[in-house]
Every structure is written in structure tokens, then in C-alpha cells.
Design brief:
With 369 residues, the protein is mostly helical. It folds into two domains: 35-188 and 358-365, Cytochrome c-like domain (Cytochrome Bc1 Complex, Chain D, domain 2, Orthogonal Bundle), CATH 1.10.760; 192-357, Cytochrome c-like domain (Cytochrome Bc1 Complex, Chain D, domain 2, Orthogonal Bundle), CATH 1.10.760.10. Helices cover 29% and strands 1% of the residues. It contains 13 helices and two strands. It has a two-stranded antiparallel sheet. Helix 1 packs antiparallel against helix 5 (157-165). The two termini are 38 Å apart.
């Protein structure tokens, strides 16, 4: 259990006004998590980067600043657009010099409850993760150290760093800390599903069936039908990499001959080949195309993959191989979830419940004026 009694870090998210908070420079401390977000579970909060109003605002400015890239054309927001739930709508993101990334841009949502960031699970904290795209020659192609030198020569940044950290020293570490503070308040918690959990919304019959299917592991012998989604996309966060769970799986996209490295690139363990982070499905209806390489354009294609498109390999997740609504084994050894067409529609109805309009329009997350 990590730091339950730490700074209440969701300050702009809760839109405190100056009147409500007459001293915004004071570090607001409180019991975390609040009762409103208890159903999200324990958060991954550092003790060496306490979130403040000033840190958040500095991080937001940095997030939208193209001077973080070598050719001054790419900011963090270039690949993480608020209206697309902080994705970019591309199968492969584009970095400096029009370089194509090997993976798609993952949605930045509810990251404070995650312990694995990036598709291959390399980063375990937001501070650590912030270094990677900056120094990657295909993404931003400029180290945080060089960025610190550039920002030190500006008129506005030294004062902003002093407000956030006590002195006007601009360092690589402070840049990543500020970016992490801003990303921690990118919280989606007001979708129809959240309102349902808080007894503020009554789902349709299709949505209710979708919820049941999503979180049910099928057992054909016992007549229990399920979509098996919640075995990997856990709980109300619908994320695999929550605290206590690594959340990286081989979900049957490729066979052994075409398997990508995934977690293997980090661990060099052959049993990790093809394992990628299981992201949150929050706002999933807005974040197409899907999967780490953006191969699926629609939610219907995603459901069809899990229903009839699973490719077998040595590291295929047992959570997939052990799930089917059909007690008759395929004579060719193929894996089928065996959902009905109505069940597929019901699951998608639930997935669309995860769209949070407040999240994608919250002015506290948008580019500073």
C-alpha cells in the first residue's frame, strides 16, 4: 500500500476556485484516496514529487511546449490530444523529422493508479517515463538536459520553476517531475459507468448485459456466458497494470513467427515475447485505432479478434486459452470465445459507457492561454 496520506493531487481536476482555496500555493494535504474515488483502489504516489498547483501548471505548460523537441515541431500534446482522450488517432505516432514510431500513442488516463507505463512496460513511474520520448531520436530527439538549457534562457520559465520548486534552477529532473505532476491529474471519473457505480445513472438493458459479460469469465460446462474482458482489464479502472498486477499479456495478435518483442525487449526473458501492456479502456470509443500497433480500426474489429481471431503462440495468455462459451472443442484446435452477435453489441454498449465528456473538455487539461 503506497502513501495513502499524501498530497491530494487532483487539484485542477476538482476545479477548486480561488475563493474556495484562498491560498493555492499551500501544498494541500489530505487523506488519499477521497471517498469519491475509493472504487479506483490504491494509487501509485511518489514521496519525492509532491503535487502542487504550481507544479501542475508548470507541467501543463511543458506538456504543450514544442521546444521540448529538437526541431521545435513536437510537443507531448502532439501525440496526446485531449479531444482524443490523449491519443492521436494514428496507428503509429509521428515524431520529429516525420519519423514513424513502432507503436501507437497510448491514452494518458488515470495513470496514478498504474505501475506499468509504455507498451513494453519499461517505465514504472511517470517521472521515469517522461525521459523516454524526449531522448528517443524518433520522437522528440532532445534530452531533458538540453531542454533545461533552452528553457533557462527564456523569460518566463525560471520564475515558473521557482514557484514550483523553490528556486529558479531548471534541471532535467525538475522538468520530468513537473510533467509527471500534470499527467497525474488527468483523471477520468465521470463517465456513465462511473455514474452507474455511484448510483447516479441507470444503464440500458444492453449496457447492463454488457457490464455482466465484460466482467464474467465464461464457463460453458456450467452455462456461464462471459466476454472474458475483465480478466485482463481489471475493475473499475479497466486497466491491467494496477498496483499488484503487472498487466502485460500476449493477447493473441500474432503467431510465433510474427511475434513482436514487447516485454521481452526489457527483460530478455523468452517467456515475455509478445507481451504488451494491457491499457485502461477508459474513453476507448475515442481512441481508435486499437492495439499497440493500431491494427484494428473499430471496436467491432477488436471484439471479433477476441471472438475468432486469436493467434496461438508459446506465450499466449492462459486467460485467453482458458475462456470459451462453447463446450465443444474446435477440431482444428482453434480458439473461439463464441459470443453471439447480440453479446458483441452489448459489450460495445458497455465500452461506450466509458466515455467521459468532462475529461476531454476539461479546460484545466488543455493548452494554457
Amino acid at each position: 500500500m503506497k502513501n495513502k496520506f499524501i498530497l491530494l493531487l487532483f487539484l485542477p481536476f476538482f476545479a477548486c476556485t480561488e475563493k474556495e482555496n484562498p491560498n493555492p500555493k499551500e501544498e494541500l494535504r489530505g487523506n488519499y484516496p477521497t471517498s469519491e474515488l475509493l472504487y479506483f483502489g490504491d494509487a501509485n504516489l511518489p514521496t519525492d514529487n509532491i503535487t502542487t498547483y504550481e507544479g501542475i501548471e508548470l507541467g501543463r505548460k511543458l506538456f504543450y511546449d514544442k521546444r521540448l523537441s529538437s526541431d521545435q515541431t513536437i510537443s507531448c500534446a502532439s501525440c496526446h490530444k485531449q479531444e482524443l482522450a490523449f491519443t492521436d488517432g494514428k496507428a503509429k505516432s509521428i515524431g520529429v523529422n516525420n519519423e514513424e514510431m513502432p507503436v501507437s500513442a497510448m491514452s494518458l488516463v488515470n495513470l496514478t493508479w498504474n505501475n506499468r507505463l509504455t507498451w513494453n512496460g519499461k517505465s514504472t513511474t511517470l517521472e521515469q517515463q517522461a525521459f523516454l520520448p524526449m531522448k528517443n531520436h524518433k520522437e522528440m530527439n532532445q534530452t531533458a538536459e538540453i531542454t533545461a538549457q533552452i528553457l533557462s534562457r527564456t523569460e518566463d520559465y525560471p520564475a515558473l520553476f521557482e514557484e514550483a520548486f523553490g528556486t529558479n534552477d531548471i534541471t532535467a529532473q525538475r522538468i520530468t517531475k513537473a510533467l509527471a505532476q500534470f499527467q497525474r491529474i488527468l483523471i477520468s471519473k465521470n463517465s456513465k459507468y462511473d455514474k452507474y457505480l455511484r448510483a447516479e445513472y441507470q444503464p440500458t438493458q444492453s449496457e447492463l448485459r454488457g457490464i455482466q459479460l465484460f466482467f464474467t469469465h465464461p464457463n460453458a460446462e456450467q452455462g456461464i456466458r462471459g466476454g472474458n474482458c475483465g480478466d485482463c482489464h481489471l475493475g473499475s479502472l479497466t486497466s491491467g497494470s494496477t498496483l499488484g498486477f503487472e498487466g502485460l499479456h500476449n493477447n493473441g495478435l500474432d503467431n510465433d513467427q510474427n511475434l513482436k518483442d514487447g516485454l521481452f525487449s526489457v527483460t530478455q526473458n523468452r517467456f515475455d515475447k509478445g507481451k504488451f501492456r494491457t491499457p485502461s479502456l477508459r474513453n476507448i470509443a475515442l481512441t481508435a485505432p486499437y492495439m499497440h500497433d493500431g491494427r484494428f480500426q473499430t471496436l467491432e474489429e477488436v471484439i471479433e479478434h477476441y471472438d475468432n481471431g486469436i493467434q496461438k503462440s508459446q506465450t499466449l495468455s492462459s486467460l485467453i486459452t482458458a475462456a470459451s462459451n462453447d463446450f465443444i472443442t474446435d477440431p482444428n484446435g482453434e480458439i473461439h470465445l463464441a459470443l453471439t452477435e447480440q453479446e458483441k453489441k452489448d459489450i460495445i454498449a458497455f465500452l461506450e459507457m466509458l466515455t467521459d465528456q468532462e475529461f476531454i473538455t476539461n479546460p484545466n487539461f488543455s493548452e494554457p492561454k
